């Protein structure tokens, strides 16, 4: 005889609550970084027009995409705060992951655009006013250093913050490259240094973008969180929860990088009330694996029934 006990239990939001303050601070930091980036983007574009520097105009276009990415990241936090409703029973937390994924793809596009633009500049070098370029590059470096410092104080584990930080890091590296290129141009007049350094920056951006897209895409595809091994979960529960003889149909995924979920079936001997075993399983999942939301189905069998997977 098999008795089935379905216990979804109350969902503890402890870790989520711990992240609320950090999320609010990260949202404010990203919002301020977006304003800084947008303001300097306008100034850099104006500087490019005044000096006739294609490099500065192109970098202003780069900052336009970064401004859009940071604005999306800020909106991601705003939307993720919305409570769950009947149509979104898990809430809107994953919107931030979707934004991180979108930003990662945008970083790919930016890096590829930089390489293509660098190729064109190598083929047909244009005149660059090194003095104006140097002044704007120094200003851009200061702005991006401040923006990067702002985002460095945000939640380092949050994919949305990491994607936004990568946008600013790309601008920061771009400013350093422009600064170095301006110094070389002023000293030697050798303009190809500008596109060459741009390619180096684009390669760094590509590596970072790949990591963001891979991690956020894994979450969006309901992939198993890196720290959760279904086989290890089964072994741990069988060895630490009295009465559990088999654990199967284990599914693990996450809403965001810090909200893992698990569902599983546990076959238990009928010597203990199913509710006690369910509570013990959930306690082990929380204390050992950091899982606050678990759905456990208990299948009670007599002591004589052999445990079998399924």
TrEMBL record:
Membrane-crossing segments per the record: 32-57, 63-80, 92-116, 128-151, 172-190, 196-213
The record's InterPro entries line, in alphabetical order, gives: Cation_efflux, Cation_efflux_CTD, Cation_efflux_CTD_sf, Cation_efflux_TM, Cation_efflux_TMD_sf, CDF/SLC30A
> What's the source species for this entry?
Hyphomicrobium nitrativorans NL23
| Domain spans labelled Cation efflux protein transmembrane | 33-221
A cellular component term from Gene Ontology for this protein is: plasma membrane
- Molecular functions (GO terms): zinc ion transmembrane transporter activity
Protein's UniProt keywords contain Ligase: no
Which segments show compositional bias classed as Basic and acidic residues? Answer: 1-10
Q: Which residues form the Cation efflux protein cytoplasmic domain?
A: 228-299
Q: Where is this region: Disordered?
A: 1-23
Membrane topology type: Multi-pass membrane protein
At the top level, the lineage of the source is Bacteria
Q: What family classification does the UniProt entry report for this protein?
A: Belongs to the cation diffusion facilitator (CDF) transporter (TC 2.A.4) family. SLC30A subfamily.
Q: Check the record and name the Pfam families matching this protein.
A: Cation_efflux, ZT_dimer
Keyword hit for Zinc: yes
Which subcellular locations apply to this protein? Answer: Membrane
Which keywords has UniProt assigned to this entry? Ion transport, Membrane, Transmembrane, Transmembrane helix, Transport, Zinc, Zinc transport
Name it: Zinc transporter ZitB
């Amino acid at each position: 005889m098999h008795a089935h006990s379905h216990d979804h239990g109350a969902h503890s939001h402890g870790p989520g609550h711990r992240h609320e303050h950090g999320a609010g601070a990260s949202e404010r930091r990203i919002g301020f970084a977006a304003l800084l980036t947008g303001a300097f983007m306008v100034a850099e574009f104006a500087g490019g027009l005044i000096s006739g520097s294609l490099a500065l105009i192109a970098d202003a276009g780069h900052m336009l995409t970064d401004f859009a990415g940071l604005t999306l990241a800020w909106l991601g936090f705003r939307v993720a705060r919305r409570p769950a409703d009947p149509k979104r029973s898990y809430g809107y937390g994953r919107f931030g992951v979707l934004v991180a994924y979108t930003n990662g793809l945008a970083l790919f596009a930016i890096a590829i655009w930089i390489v293509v633009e660098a190729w064109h500049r190598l083929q047909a070098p244009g005149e660059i006013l090194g003095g104006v370029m140097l002044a704007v590059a120094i200003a851009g470096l200061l702005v991006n250093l401040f923006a990067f410092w702002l985002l460095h104080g945000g939640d380092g584990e949050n994919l949305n913050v990491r994607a936004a930080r990568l946008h600013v890091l790309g601008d920061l590296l771009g400013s350093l490259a422009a600064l170095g290129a301006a110094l070389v141009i002023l000293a030697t007049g050798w303009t190809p240094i500008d596109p060459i350094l741009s390619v180096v920056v684009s390669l760094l951006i590509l590596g970072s973008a790949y990591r963001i897209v891979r991690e956020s895409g894994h979450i969006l595809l309901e992939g198993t969180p890196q720290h959760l091994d279904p086989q290890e979960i089964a072994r741990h529960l069988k060895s630490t929860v009295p009465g559990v003889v088999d654990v199967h149909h284990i599914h693990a995924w996450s809403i965001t990088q810090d909200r893992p979920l698990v569902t599983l079936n546990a076959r238990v001997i009928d010597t203990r009330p199913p509710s006690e075993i369910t509570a013990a399983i959930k306690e082990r999942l929380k204390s050992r694996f950091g899982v606050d939301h678990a759905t456990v189905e208990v299948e009670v069998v007599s002591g004589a029934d052999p445990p079998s997977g399924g």
